[in-house]
Amino acid sequence: MKGKTGTTMGRTELKKVVVAGGTGLVGHHLVQALVERKALVAVVSRKPALAKLPKGAEAYGWKDLPALLEGADAVFNLAGEGLADKRWSPDRKEAILSSRTESTRRIVEALKWVAQKPPVLVNASAIGFYNADGQSLQEENAKPGKDFLAQVCDAWEKEADAVTGKGIRLVKLRLGVVLAREGGALPRMAQPVRLFLGCPLGDGRQGFSWIHIADLVDLLLEAASNINYEGAINATAPKPISHRAFMEALARRLHRPLWPLPSICTRWPLKLLLGEMAEPMLLRGAYVYPKKALALGFHFTYTRSEEALEDLL
Ligand SMILES: NC(=O)c1ccc[n+]([C@@H]2O[C@H](COP(=O)([O-])OP(=O)(O)OC[C@H]3O[C@@H](n4cnc5c(N)ncnc54)[C@H](OP(=O)(O)O)[C@@H]3O)[C@@H](O)[C@H]2O)c1
């Protein structure tokens, strides 16, 4: 990658950027936005030859990482096995954890050998970090929860922490449920509603902390560019709602009914169908508040789920 790096007025200019895991849902949107801003974008993938990228971005293998990082303005790390792609067998849980800790470690290790280091690493994390029981708002200073997802997020963030004190600003963005048209949670949640089969899961009171993909891309870019962004930052819309309230908004948007089933009618079938992942992924949820992003002046375009759904569906 050729190009010049630079910082002006407390902001890092994103001219050369590395995006690990940039072939996925979030990466695709981020890379598109970077290319539109005329950045040189190198996407790090396990299968670079198969990567479908926007024009202007190039795919590389993980072995190329040290060379790509040389003189880059920012590195984003979004890599990790899909959380909801398969049932959580012990092997699957190991893959979910190690794909995140090892990819982060590879970046941290590679950075040690880079002469002109990127000034910032924006590492994905998730709101699975928080204790997902109860109704209290979770801000960035909350302690991690105790379940598997919380342990994964905590271990993932601790790997990234190894860059602190090495002249690299670290932002750990704790992503909420990303709402996008073409993938992730929204199409999966909308499908049964479209088929007149929608109902809230469990008692519906669990928190549903979401973010519109457009706001997430803006936040990722701001986190990389603005030197005041540092440490753990929640990437969720400012008004977290209950799962039931989100499903009601979804049903209204799709002009479909929502069946008010008793909790037991969904809880046990989901547990039988999905096993261990049913509780942390669907039946529990945290109310997460983006205190730091708001304090830093970040403007969310989509603050209400109705607005996000209107745009996306
Ligand atoms: N989407 C959400 O709602 C959400 C919510 C919270 C947190 N997050 C986190 O944010 C990150 C990006 O989310 P996303 O929705 O864009 O995820 P995604 O669509 O699943 O993409 C993740 C990328 O990670 C790479 N990857 C998968 N398994 C890997 C492995 N074993 N080793 C190294 N790389 C691997 C893949 O790239 P290659 O196949 O090209 O290598 C994939 O494109 C993820 O870490 C995710 O956990 C997402």
Structural summary, described in words:
By secondary structure, the protein is an alpha/beta fold. It has a domain of 215 residues: NAD(P)-binding Rossmann-like Domain (Rossmann fold). It contains eleven helices and 15 strands. The strands form five sheets. It has a seven-stranded parallel β-sheet with strand order 5-4-3-6-7-9-13, with helices on both faces. A two-stranded antiparallel ribbon has the order 1-2. Helix 3 runs parallel beside helix 4. The longest helix is centred in the first third of the chain and has 23 residues. It is globular. The relative contact order is 0.14. The model has no long low-confidence stretch (mean pLDDT 95). The protein binds NADP nicotinamide-adenine-dinucleotide phosphate. NADP nicotinamide-adenine-dinucleotide phosphate binds next to helix 1, helix 3, strand 7 and strand 10.
